[in-house]
């Protein structure tokens, strides 16, 4: 029987792995780089338009949703490519579904952005 690590040490290791994964995503994936650029732009827009605390929370939630789903999509694609490097219809189907999830998240974030910013831009 192996000795179990203390809870706090185990959690700190998990946070370290998560941080490493976040860095790898940002360093290696162009889609994440684009998402971060868009997040930076809408953050500047939020400062400019003086978003309310509620609008900030919703905007941050939308940004987090996109980045998280994009990260999961990347993980699914990498795993699928590792398991079956050649083109395969079922692997392609799985990858398309994962990309579709990113699409849904992006459409949701765009709609949220429109609700937040259109009234401010056009003073509706």
From TrEMBL:
The chain crosses the membrane at residues 32-50, 56-76, 97-118. Gene3D superfamilies: 1.10.287.3610. Keywords: ATP-binding, Cell membrane, Kinase, Lipid biosynthesis, Lipid metabolism, Magnesium, Membrane, Metal-binding, Nucleotide-binding, Phospholipid biosynthesis, Phospholipid metabolism, Transferase, Transmembrane, Transmembrane helix. ATP binds at residues 17, 29, 77, 86-88, 95-96. One of its GO terms (molecular function) is metal ion binding. The keyword Kinase applies. The keyword Membrane applies. It is a multi-pass membrane protein. It is found in: Cell membrane. Mn(2+), Zn(2+), Cd(2+) and Co(2+) support activity to lesser extents. GO terms for biological process: phospholipid biosynthetic process. Its cofactor is Mg(2+). Substrate binds at residue 70. Pfam families: DAGK_prokar. A divalent metal cation binds at residues 29, 77. One of its GO terms (cellular component) is plasma membrane. The active site is at residue 70. PANTHER family: DIACYLGLYCEROL KINASE. Belongs to the bacterial diacylglycerol kinase family. This is Diacylglycerol kinase. It comes from Mangrovimonas yunxiaonensis.
